[in-house]
Amino acid sequence: MPSAEFDTYFDQRATRFAAFYGSERVARLLGRGPLFDRLRGAIDIAVSCGAQRVLDVGCGSGPLLGPLAAKGIAVVGIDPAPAMVSMARREAERFPGLLSVEQRSWEEIGETDAYDLAVALGVFDYVDEPLELLRRMGGAAPRVVGSFPAPGLRLRLRQVRYGARGVHVHAYDAARITSLASAAALRVEELKPLGRAGFLAHLARSAS
Ligand SMILES: C[S@@+](CC[C@H](N)C(=O)[O-])C[C@H]1O[C@@H](n2cnc3c(N)ncnc32)[C@H](O)[C@@H]1O
Question: Could you say which DSSP state residue 101 is in?
Fold first, then answer.
C-alpha cells in the first residue's frame, strides 16, 4: 500500500471519512450502508465470543470504539493518520479507562495474545500484504474480524479514483479470503456477505 501519497491520503480526508457515519439513512441512500452493517457485525461477533479486549486496527475516527465500550469491552485503536487518531481520541475520552488510541500502523503490531479479538474494518482494501496483516492480527488475538471488498464495478471505480492518488484498492472473493486465512493458520468461522460490497470475515486460530 505505501506510496508518498498513501501516507497522507487518510490523514487529509479524515473529516470526510468520519462524516460517512453521520447519518445511516444518508449513507444507505448513497450506497454506503455496508459501513454500518460491518460495524454491527463486528460488534455482534465481539459480544457473542465474549471478548473483553479488542484491538481495532486502522480504527480511523473511531466508529467502533464507543459501541464496544458501551458494552463494557476495552478497546485499543491503532491508526497511523494523525487526524484520525485525534478524532478517535476524542471518542475515547467518553469512556476513560476502557478506550485508548495509539498512533501506529499494523506493520508495528508485535503483541502476542494481548487481545481476545483483532478487528480491521475498511483496511484490507488498501493492504498490499494481506497475509502479513492477517498473521499479525492472528498473533495478537485468537479471533480476527476483517472486512474484505468484493470485485465488481463499484470496486473498479474506487480503484480508478483512489489509484489517481497513489492508493491501491484490492478485491477479495470468498476463495481468496479462505486461502489467506488458511495460510495465516486461521479458519473461517463465518463469511458474512455485505451485499455486493464484499464480506465480513470472522476467523479463528486453527488448532495446532
Ligand atoms: C477507510 S478507513 C477505515 C477506518 C475505520 N476502521 C472505519 O471502519 O471507519 C481506513 C483506515 O486505515 C488506516 N490505515 C492506513 N494505513 C494503515 C496502516 N499501515 N496500519 C493501520 N491503519 C492504516 C487509515 O489511516 C484509515 O484510518
Answer: E
86 lines ligand 1 (CB under 6 A): no
Q: How many CA atoms lie within 13 A of 107 on its CB side?
A: 6
How many of the other CB atoms lie within 10 Å of CB of 173?
12
Q: How many helices (H) and strands (E) are present in the chain, helices listed first?
A: 9, 7
pTM of the model: 0.96
Q: Facing residues of 78 across strands?
A: 57, 102
Position 48, amino acid: S
From 7, 20, 123, 170, give the residue whose CB has the most ligand 1 atoms within 8 Å, as the site to mutate. Answer: 123
CATH 3.40.190.10 fits 4-205, yes or no: no
* Residues 109-139: tens digit of each pLDDT: 999 999 999 999 999 999 999 999 999 999 9
Q: Per DSSP, which regions of 25-126 are E strands?
A: 53-57, 74-78, 99-102, 117-120
Rounded distance, CA 177 to CA 131, Å? 10
Phi, psi of 32 (to 5 degrees): -105, 20
| Grid cell digits, residue 140 | 495478537
Give pLDDT tens digits for 52-104: 999 999 999 999 999 999 999 999 999 999 999 999 999 999 999 999 999 99
